[in-house]
Amino acid sequence: MSFQTTDSKKEEFRKYLEKSGVIDQLTRVLVGLYEEPEKPSNAIDFVKRYLGSPADIDVETLRSEYEAIKERNAFLEREVAELKEEIEKLRGGD
């Protein structure tokens, strides 16, 4: 059995972040925040906007809308299957 030390896990993770471009993006956003003449009152919103994510999204609302759409889709899929079945029965009766 081989166990990775904490330092080697940290180094592996650091290499992953560097390879995937996360470190560069974080550096850019932090430099952008540092260079802002007037610091924003909400630094997290600044980071989100800088990285291209809208700051005013309500995740819970999106989740509930997604669930409602999923349920509606399942209902419509069942309805389509039932209608196809009915069409097949009608065709078979000719």
From TrEMBL:
<dbReference type="GO" id="GO:0003713">
    <property type="term" value="F:transcription coactivator activity"/>
</dbReference>
<protein>
    <recommendedName>
        <fullName>c-Myc-binding protein</fullName>
    </recommendedName>
</protein>
<dbReference type="InterPro" id="IPR026060">
    <property type="entry name" value="AMY1"/>
</dbReference>
<keyword id="KW-0175">Coiled coil</keyword>
<feature type="coiled-coil region">
    <location>
        <begin position="59"/>
        <end position="93"/>
    </location>
</feature>
<keyword id="KW-0539">Nucleus</keyword>
<comment type="similarity">
    <text>Belongs to the AMY1 family.</text>
</comment>
<dbReference type="GO" id="GO:0005634">
    <property type="term" value="C:nucleus"/>
</dbReference>
